[in-house]
Amino acid sequence: MTTVVIQEARARVTVGIFADMADASTAAPPSGESAEAALELLAEMSPDLRGAAILGSTGEVLAATGEERERWGEDVAALFAAADEAEGVPVEQVHIATEQGEVFAIRNAGLAAVSVTDRFALASLMLFDLRSTLRQLTTPNFSSPERGQPRKGDR
Amino acid sequence: MPAKPHRILLDRVSVYADEAAAFMRRRRVARRPFARLYYPHGRSADHAQDSRAGAELFVAAGRLIEVAGKKQKR
Predict the structure, then answer these.
(1) Would an 8 Å CB–CB cutoff place B67 in contact with chain A?
(2) What residues contact A126, with CB distance under 8 A and at least 6 apart?
């Protein structure tokens, strides 16, 4: 297809840009505390969010909403297994919309983040928030902003 | 010659009905479930619900929606 050709061309052009960048997956794994803080920030940023989880490189649950942490781990593993099996290639992002809600999942720098939202959540924003959450976790000295302190752009 | 009053009323009702039908049609299209996978280098692929891969994805998504539960009131 034409779009695939364009995207592959873009990849060929941009690959040189990232060649010299350090691999974020080589950084130390984030602690459960920082993952909880990142998840809290994600929930604050996303009004459509019902639940979310952040998983480590071996599939262990670093942080999750609700009580069923273990189930998050199992179900996220099943989701990525099904997604990887679809074309036999590891996926980067997953977006599934059902009548009951929407599921977003993303893998980056050895971590995975999954969120469940209401129907008609803005997909690009949700995926951006998930990606920035994982990026913050791989950034050294990440800390949650003080509660009650308005962030830039808040009204 | 001005239109008869009942004709104006009928026209207005049919315009509203057309608007409602268009809204329902757009809503039905927007509500259609889908499973979209994104691969490295920006490639993406849709999987239909009746395909084998799509069915597995929808089952996995259903479990996650279940575990997330309802939205917490803030």
Answers:
(1) yes
(2) A46, A48, A102, A104, A115, A117
Say if the Cβ atoms of B33 and A99 lie within 8 Å.
yes
| Residues contacting A99, CB < 8 A, separation 6+ | A119, B31, B33
Q: What is the pTM of this model?
A: 0.72
The domain tally of chain A equals 1
Contact state of B56 with A82 under an 8 Å Cβ cutoff:
yes
Specify the CATH number for the domain of residue A54.
3.30.450.30
- Please report whether residue A33 resides in a domain: yes
Q: Which of B37, B64, B69 sits opposite A114 (nearest CB)?
A: B64
Q: Quickly count: other Cβ atoms within 10 Å of residue B50's Cβ.
A: 8
Which residue of chain A comes nearest to B48, CA vs CA? A96
* Category of A153 on φ-ψ map: left (φ > 0), alpha (ψ -120 to 50) or beta: left
- Tell me the pairing of strands A102-108 and A93-97: antiparallel
The count of CB pairs under 8 A between chains A and B is 114
pLDDT digits (tens, 9 = 90+) for B44-55: 999 988 899 999
* Chain-chain contact of A91 with B43 (C-beta, under 8 angstroms): no
Sequence ranges of the domains in chain B: 1-32, 34-74
Give ipTM to 2 decimals.
Answer: 0.73
Q: Is A86 within a domain?
A: yes
